[in-house]
Design a protein that fits this description.
Elements lengths: L2 E9 L3 H19 L2 E6 L4 H7 L5 H8 L3 E6 L3 H4 L8 H11 L4 E7 L12 H4 L3 E7 L9 E3 L6 E3 L5 H17 L3 E6 L5 H14 L6 E6 H10 L6 E4 L1 H12 L9 E5 L4 E5 L16 H13 L3 H16 L15 H20 L1
Parallel strand pairs: 1-2, 1-3, 3-12, 5-10, 8-9, 8-10
Antiparallel strand pairs: 4-5, 4-11, 6-7, 11-12
Helix pairs in contact: 1-11, 1-13, 7-8, 9-10, 11-12, 12-13
The structure holds 3-isopropylmalic acid (IPM) and manganese (II) ion.
């Protein structure tokens, strides 16, 4: 197969800017490797609320279901963050999309670039060689349990629920990834307090017998938050429930120097969505300063998913080349920072140039 239908949801804030760079990259990949990508755009998030009243219009959902993969930018708008009474919120669009597409596994890789070691807030000795793959459960838990706020606004709750079926598929995925890597899997939970965490432990232990070559260990989430800073190298693959995964993946992201570098893949039975882990960064909207690399590396994860591994590899190499040559945005504290679109164009040109000169 060399023709692919891609749903593109730019979303809010810097979303459209970073997605624009991913499209530029895919056009370069298409040219260099002779693939065809057909892009269909959809509205989601605050932008969708402003235009249609719905954070996930039916039309958008349909486009996503009919595509080979979904590329997504970012979601969120201060107009809603600052208004606790808003009934319709941009984030509901993303949550509904994850649920409707059954995207149960959110994969967030963390890798160090040697040329960026000095940019990390942590010491070089601590972070050098860190390579972690986080598997976050994405369609259950407290995000999707029953919610309630009393009329007077003085009482509220959110229920956290898990069933064995919600846990099994992502745990298998995480074990299989660990087998390909350093063969260590850590379940992060709060099993000293939460029943759902005790269920996670039980299911993980059962599944572990199918992967005897992988070492399974357990860590409480509070300790894990500390261990990620003290000794991140001890982790190989992490698997965890929805909200713990949300929190520790943001924490882990700064180890590499900037959250603007980290991609993610959300995978289901028959659909997949790719998005940077950063948010909509409204303060930077329209300024051309957003780092497009997280979105571009999410695109590389999409190429892997579409089984275009060679193109994915080329793209990762090109990103590395840009980083090593200091072709980066202002978040990486470069002496001479480049704009969002300069970084994207540099990577796109490098893909086209290097493919032509070596292979044609
Ligand atoms: C993320 C984001 C989302 C989440 C928000 C925007 C709903 O923080 O993808 O990590 O909490 O899952
Ligand atoms: Mn998050």
């Amino acid at each position: 197969k060399n023709q692919f239908k891609i749903a593109v949801l730019p979303g809010d804030g810097i979303g459209p800017e970073v997605i624009g760079e991913s499209i530029k990259i895919l056009n370069a990949i298409a040219e260099a490797f002779h693939y065809t990508f057909e892009f269909t755009y959809g509205l989601m998030g605050a932008e969708a609320i402003y235009q249609t009243g719905n954070p996930l219009p039916d039309e958008t959902l349909k486009i996503c279901k009919e595509s080979d993969a979904v590329l997504f930018g970012a979601i969120g708008d201060p107009a809603f963050d600052n208004n606790p009474d808003a009934k319709v919120r941009p984030e509901q669009g993303l949550l509904k999309l994850r649920k409707e597409l059954g995207l149960f596994a959110n994969i967030r890789p963390l890798k160090m670039y040697s040329s960026l070691i000095e940019k990390s807030p942590l010491k070089k000795e601590i972070i050098e060689g860190t390579d972690i793959q986080i598997f976050r459960e994405l369609v259950s838990g407290i995000y999707f349990g029953e919610k309630f706020t009393e009329e007077n606004g003085e009482y509220a709750y959110d229920v956290c629920k898990y069933s064995r079926e919600d846990i099994i598929p992502i745990v298998h995925m995480a074990f299989q990834e660990a087998q390909k890597r350093r063969k260590k899997l850590t379940l992060i939970d709060k099993a000293n307090v939460l029943d759902t965490s005790r269920l996670w432990r039980k299911v993980c232990k059962e599944i572990a017998s199918e992967y005897p070559d992988v070492e399974l260990d357990f860590m409480f989430v509070d300790n894990a938050a500390m261990q990620l800073i003290l000794n991140p190298k001890q982790f190989d693959v992490i698997v965890t429930e929805n909200m713990f995964g949300d929190i520790i993946s943001d924490e882990a992201s700064v180890i590499g120097g900037s959250i603007g570098l980290l991609p993610s893949a959300s995978i289901g039975e028959s659909n997949a969505l790719f998005e940077p882990i950063h948010g909509s960064y409204p303060q930077a909207k329209g300024k051309g300063i957003a780092n497009p690399i997280a979105s571009i590396l999410s695109t590389a994860m999409m190429l892997d998913y579409l089984k275009l591994e060679q193109a994915a590899e080329k793209l990762r190499k090109s990103v590395e080349y840009a980083i090593e040559n200091k072709y980066v945005t202002v978040d990486l504290k470069a002496e001479q920072p480049y704009s969002t679109s300069e970084v994207g164009s540099f990577i796109a040109d490098y893909i086209k140039f290097s493919e032509k000169s070596y292979y044609n």
